[in-house]
Amino acid sequence: MYKNRTIAVVVPSYNEEDLISDTLKSIPQFVDRIFVVNDGSEDSTGTKIDELSQNDPRISHILHERNKGVGAAVISGYKSSLAEEFDITVVMDGDNQMDPKYVAALLDPIVDGKADYTKGNRLLNPDYRKGMSKWRLFGNSILTILTKFSSGYWQLMDPQNAFTAISRDVLERIDLDSVYPRYGYPNDLLAKMNVFGFRVINIPHPARYGKEKSKIKYGRYILKVSNLLLMNFFWRLKTKYILINFHPLIFFYIFGILMVPLGVIGGIYTIHNKLLFGEALFIRGVLSALLAIIGIQLFLFAMLFDMQMENYRI
To answer: Of 153, 164, 59, 162, whose CA–CA distance to 107 is shortest?
Structure first.
């Protein structure tokens, strides 16, 4: 128990035989239950979890017979925590990359009533990013920008960081079965939380890399998650600003999204006809430019309204 709150930790694990022991042994003693989700591991991960559970009664071994994805593993842990009515649930990957001394920092804002969901942020300080490859940093930065639009949490950074804490209130209201089952699950979860106005806070902490090997294929991963973020963006706008709580910013977004590409296409068409047929450039060019400029302004106004609605609780 931590400050009169019961605490569970979910540890999604897939082929982590070299690191799972170090991870589980490092979890603070104030944690009441550890749900280790063995996501169809093909090595001795399951055996090591069982051995450790004999000496630590907090450990509960949840087995997926086949690999379902890290998101599915986390959701299995969330459901177990929810069933046992733990107040706050932390996620720590099984690769020992997450420093347990920062667990308390994740818990405090939720305990103090300042947040419903906290997540680690390794991007804030250059010193915290030591050990992170340039390719990984680039991909994470791109997904951070896209996730801001998709989720509506504009202050958010490092969305791919799975070192998180979540309140029982969130778990009770979110449709856990609809959460994306693979590496894009943190991005998907954020969009769903924003619809209900849950408060999210970044918790800075340093990256900690050792002998773990990332299982993410970044090129394909960025493309798949980018598509997920686009779908989540439109789903969030429809659900939050039309179905649940109508807001005129939806019109600013719609017209902005339509007018900018129309202005660009009109400009290209005008230049094309000028070069090939010598047609007049001025009138069509000005109209195309105005269309694009007005579209950009509408989109920026929509973003402004969206930011103001960020923590509007439903």
So the answer is: 164
Nearest to 39 by CA among 166, 182, 157, 170: 182
Q: Could you report the average pLDDT of every consecutive run of 10 residues in the chain (314 residues)?
A: 97 94 95 97 94 95 95 97 97 91 96 96 78 76 91 91 96 96 93 94 83 60 84 95 91 95 92 81 88 96 90 62
SS (H, E, C) 87-137: CEEEECCCCCCCCHHHHHHHHHHHHCCCCCEEEEECCCCHHHHCCCCHHHH
> What is the C-alpha separation between 251 and 25, in angstroms, rounded?
53
pLDDT at 124: 77
DSSP secondary structure string for all residues of 159-223: TT---EEEEHHHHHHS-GGGS-SSTTHHHHHHHHHHHTT--EEEEE-----SS------HHHHHH
Q: How far is it, in rounded angstroms, from Cα 82 to Cα 167?
A: 10
Nearest to 161 by CA among 178, 136, 179: 136
Residue 289 has phi, psi (to 5 degrees) of -65, -45
Environment class of residue 20 by beta-carbon count within 10 Å: exposed (0-12), middle (13-18) or buried (19+)?
buried
This prediction has a pTM of: 0.89
